[in-house]
Amino acid sequence: QVHLVESGGGLVQPGGSLRLSCTASGTIFSINTMGWYRQGPGNRRELVAQETSGGTTNYGDSVKGRFTVSRDIAKNTVYLQMGSLKPEDTAVYYCNAACRTPLNPYYDRNYWGQGTQVTVSS
Predict the structure, then answer these.
(1) Which strands, in side-by-side order, build the sheet including 67-72?
(2) Which residues, 6 or more positions from 37, have their beta carbon under 8 angstroms from its beta carbon?
(3) CA distance 89 to 52
(4) What is the pLDDT of residue 1?
(5) Which residues contact 72 (CB under 8 A, 6 or more apart)?
């Protein structure tokens, strides 16, 4: 079983910054893509940012130029640096990882963290 644990969420004023982190634990052969999704009240879950093991990044249109995703491959950790935060960024942010494990060694399977709340409000 793969466990993803997020941290760094909280309350911040518009225009502020926040840094999220997520670490994967368990017996993991490899992690291909690792990144972040979010879901606000009444909204569907959407991509925020992700990065492959080769360093390719992908961002949702609403966060381009404001957020930066990065990874520490050796530590199975992904970060999300959030800047110029807006009220519409308020959501639960979920860590996502596509992993191969002893139970699923032949293909990538998606795993999800439990989420961390980010609230942007004055």
Answers:
(1) 3-7, 18-25, 77-82, 67-72
(2) 45, 46, 47, 48, 93, 94, 96
(3) 24
(4) 84
(5) 78, 79
Written as six digits, the tokens of 1 are 């079983």
Q: Which residues contact 80 (CB under 8 A, 6 or more apart)?
A: 19, 20, 21, 36, 48, 49, 67, 68, 69, 93
CA distance 49 to 46: 9
Q: Which amino acid is at 5?
A: V
As given in the structure block, the two tokens for residue 88 are 């519409």
Query: Which residue's structure tokens are 């760094």?
Result: 8
H helices present in 30-109, as ranges: none
Residue 110's H or E segment, with its range, is strand 104-112
Greatest distance between any 2 Cα atoms in the chain = 48
Q: What is the pLDDT along the chain (122 residues), one digit of tens a residue?
A: 899 999 999 999 999 999 999 999 999 999 999 999 999 988 999 999 999 999 999 999 999 999 999 999 999 999 999 999 999 999 999 999 999 999 999 999 999 999 999 999 99
